[in-house]
Amino acid sequence: MIWPTFLALMFNFTYGFLLPLIPRFGVESAGVAFSMFALVKLALTVPSGHLTDRLGAWRATGFALVVQALALGSIAFIPSQAWIGRGLQGFALALGQVAVISLCRTSSTNLVEFERLVARVIGIGSLGYVAGPALGFALAKASPQNAVFGAAVFTTLIAGIHFLVGAVKKPARESESAPSHATAPVSWQVALTFMIALGCTKALIVGMEPVFAWWASDVFEFPPLVAGLTFVVLSVAFAVATWKPHLRTALACASGLVLIEISLRGMTNLWWLGIGAMGYWAGVSVTTSVAKLGWNKPETIGRTNSRWLLITDFPMSVMPVVAWSFREPSDVHFRGPIEAVLLLTACVCLSRGVRAAAAQTGTRSS
Q1: CA dihedral angle for residue 201, residue 205, residue 207, residue 212, rounded to 10 degrees
Q2: How far is it, in rounded angstroms, from Cα 325 to Cα 4?
Q3: Residue 175's pLDDT is what?
Q4: Helices (H), 170-214
Q5: pLDDT computed for residue 309 by the predictor
């Protein structure tokens, strides 16, 4: 199904699009605006799940688009109070994240189809994190206010199309219309294993992203364009992994973090290999975990998805502060053990989770 994939790409694009633009509306207030987004997203993730079950995944996704348009419009018309728009965007992304995953479930007739759809949604959606900031940087010096207004108009158009398609299709409540499935959701023990793997992966990748950016610009002293390629390589490798995830290859690629640390000792060429390897590992870990955790009973899918999304988001809200505190290359004695614990925990839990899920469903893991 193309539409959920496009929606994931759009939500990620608008999130990344605002990152370089918000400071243009006030450097001093930018920190408050960024913090407001994270706080609102965490606070409203579980309520978003209840709203998704109440409205149905299709209508909830449309409502998330409307809130996203309001968020962008608020920033465009009241740029001095960007924190209001960022707070609205936190709600939009919380609801959109839950609703899109739920929409993938209600659009799939079996587990295999669901896993393929989730892989496409996550893979193509992740490219929005690259395209969004890139366009934002390009427009930041020209007219950031007009750029945000244009994004608001475009989002409003997409929301209109979404509701128009829904009116034509006349979707019933997803709990009533979703196809029945022979494959039961994974047990709570297996789900817990995947949640630990996903939480550690998010913490490591999201937590280290600011440090990666600082290393590229200040330690290696790459030109801005070259430094930006760090995240292009990371995102493309992530997207490639979602297209055809392979567990054994991903576990081998987990050693990319070691290559990154070695590159800080003067072996610069290993930097790009390590970044690409980490991107692939993260792509497989996230895609596999979300696919297993997202296959739930249609009647409670929103609430179930919102709970594991909230739990796995907590570690990545703490790790950036910790990683930044030990960002100097010489801090490896403090940073290294933290990285090792997160990486090994994620790999072990992912491997055990895949084996347990395969035993439960009677499939064979690669």
Answers
A1: 160
A2: 38
A3: 45
A4: 174-177, 188-214
A5: 92
Residue with tokens 């079996």: 110
For residues 219-239, average pLDDT: 85
Strands (E), the chain: none
Structure tokens that stand for 80 in this block: 């001095």
- What are the residues whose beta carbons fall under 8 Å from the beta carbon of 100, sequence distance 6 or more? 4, 7, 8, 11, 57, 61, 121
- Please provide residue 268's backbone torsions phi and psi, each rounded to the nearest 5 degrees: -60, -35
Q: Count CB neighbours of 252 within 10 A.
A: 13
pLDDT at residue 364 greater than cutoff 70 = no
pTM of the model: 0.83
> How does DSSP classify residue 260?
H
Chain centroid to Cα 51, Å, comes to: 20
Structure tokens at 319: 């790790």
Model confidence pLDDT, tens digit, residues 163-211: 998 877 655 444 444 554 456 788 889 999 999 999 999 999 888 877 8
Q: Are 8 and 121 in contact (CB under 8 A)?
A: yes
Our measurement of the distance from residue 7's CA atom to the centroid of its chain's CA atoms, rounded to an integer in Å, reads: 13
Gap between the Cα atoms of 126 and 238, Å rounded: 8
Query: What is residue 135's predicted lDDT score, i.e. its pLDDT?
Result: 80
Helix (H, G, I), strand (E, B) or coil at 75: helix
Of 236, 250, 24, the C-alpha closest to 128 is 236
What pLDDT, on a 0 to 100 scale, did the predictor assign at position 28? 67
215-245: burial string, b at 16+ Cβ within 10 Å, e else: bbbebeebeeeebbbbbebbbbbbbbbbeeb
Count of all residues that appear for the chain in the document: 366
The tens digit of pLDDT for each residue in 162-174 reads 999 887 765 544 4
Structure tokens, 50: 């209840």
Supply the pLDDT for residue 173.
Answer: 46
Residue 87's closest CA among 18, 142, 151? 18
CA within 13 Å, CB half, 123? 22
Q: How far apart are CA 159 and CA 65, in angstroms?
A: 5
Three-point CA angle 239, 327, 335, nearest 5°: 85
